[in-house]
Amino acid sequence: MESSNRRRTIFNFPAADESKKYTERKLIGYSPQQLYTVVAGIEHYKDFVPWCVRSSITHQPSADYLEAELEVGFKLFTERYTSKVTLHKPNKVFSAVADSTLFDHLDSTWEFHKGPTPTTTWLTFGVDFAFKSPLYKHVATVFFDEVVKRMMNAFETRCRALYGPSHAHRPAPQHRPIAA
């Protein structure tokens, strides 16, 4: 009988790549401080981030470090996880999942660099994650691009709600994924 190195998973889904990675650089019409405030305001994620039903800061021993608990949900399922967040005001926010039954790992990085005018910022966003569940890994493979677009749009919409229209004067969005 022939041996196979192919890994079988529950529900016979093919084994997806363990990790999904995405990086994007984009010119945004808000200042680095404004973007930093929105991204670092984790306690408000429940108000605007897709699928986030609860968000709270559980521990903040210093101005540049905190732990947050987020609950994400879609239809009948909800999952809760804890992230450790490092804040480099006003240029960077990094978070890593510390306690999760949902994710094997989830790291995100937001970097803010001054744009060509004082009211613009070059935003670089990166995410690297893997689900623990083979089913969720398969779903992530199918819907990954849509999820990332919705997340980025949610943060831009939040900026508009807090600070008014974008100050970026350009004919077309400068939006491009960066190969990981």
TrEMBL record:
Coiled coil: none annotated. CDD domains: COQ10p_like (cd07813). GO terms for molecular function: ubiquinone binding. Residues 28-156 form the Coenzyme Q-binding protein COQ10 START domain. It comes from the Eukaryota. Belongs to the COQ10 family. This is Coenzyme Q-binding protein COQ10 START domain-containing protein. It comes from Apatococcus fuscideae.
